[in-house]
Write a structure and sequence with these properties.
The protein is mostly helical. Helix content is 83%, strand content 0%.
Amino acid sequence: MKTVAQRLSSQKNQINMTEGSIFGKLLKFSLPLIFSSVLQLFFNAADVIVVGRFAGDNSLAAVGSTGSLVNLLINLFTGLATGTSVVAANYFGAGKKKELKQTVHTSITISLISGIILTFIGVFGSKLILQMMKAPEVVLNLANIYLKIYFAGITSTMVYNFGSALLRAKGDTKRPLYILLLSGVINLILNLVFVINFKMDVSGVAWATVISQTLSAILVILILIFEKDDFHLEIKKLCINPVILRKIVKIGLPAGFQGIMFSFSNVIIQSSVNMFGPVVIAGNSAAINLEGFIYTSMNGFSQGSLTFCSQNLGAKKIERIKKVVIISQFSIIVIGAVLGALFLLCGNFLLGLYTNSEQVIKAGMVRCWVIFTTYYLCGMMDGMANSIRGIGHSLMPVISSLTGACIFRILWLFSIFLIPKFHLPVTIYLSYPISWFLTFIANMFFYKKYIKDLEKRISMNFSQ
């Protein structure tokens, strides 16, 4: 009798993105990815709701305030996972089987090494970093407990991220959805048991996350082991191929560095938010949790643009790349604007799911008014950056993000925010939409330049 992994492996889980309807295939790729991300956020939201309802506002603030720090520490390696997806998709589109197999084994090896490094940094450095972020004493110890447990099991998260990135490279977004559905349900059940029944507070949420992520990692590895195509994984062949590693690093390191810069600016922003006390921290945390649902819906098409551009670059179909970028950008704008309006209208109700405190809800709505009305700009910015990475360039999105978003936000906080009459949470939040717009404009400029360069290079190759 076949195992679950074998049955999943026998399905048709590839999308040829170099031919046929772009929008139809983009939907086929992006919708399962969106559902996966929304499910993950739903279960993460359940974490926060359980903590806020059954452990109190200080515990809610403790868990919520760690998000920017977690992202800061893992974004470099998440960027390498993006590099994995781009390199694998490029080889898949070009039909280079040997190089694709080497990419699979190199990527999983990198994920294991990444997890070990992050465990060391997170377990031994979390409290110091939280203190540097000016975390209030009432949440410091709780946040530190949460982070130590979370990073103790971070290797599973890395393995899942790299494994799912490999599956996305060939257009397979369905099986990661199935994995997240199962692990998410288990995570929710464990949260309820650990926090409500066993009174484990934030440590219960952290252990539930570690256990569910470990299950996700095991399942994605089993799927790759039972694959019958060039994405087949053999544990005994795990190693790092230097040539493949350089390609992954060339794309992934700048992408990861960009994520670090964004997270660093967000850590500074979180530090500024922390000045206003636990109520504002809790309201900000709940609002950020809601934003995730909109972001991941836009990001599904952003990731679609990345993979579609990568496969078509391998097939040398530049005109198709242009159409992919236009269609994905339009989709992102529509989703961001519509969902932003809906979430804003339902803001008080949605924030009320996280807490009973009217003060926390009021504080959260301040952020909602700024972000939900402009969030499509963030999607456009990320979509354009991913399109540039998909055609083989990862450095310039980092430079534009560093100047247009990170440096701008820091300057904003150390100038406008310090003016007494503007020393308010809303001033902090306004730095986001302005930085998104500036970075999008810069990314658009670089995209047009690189497309022209590609057209010239390919036309010269054909003429020779």
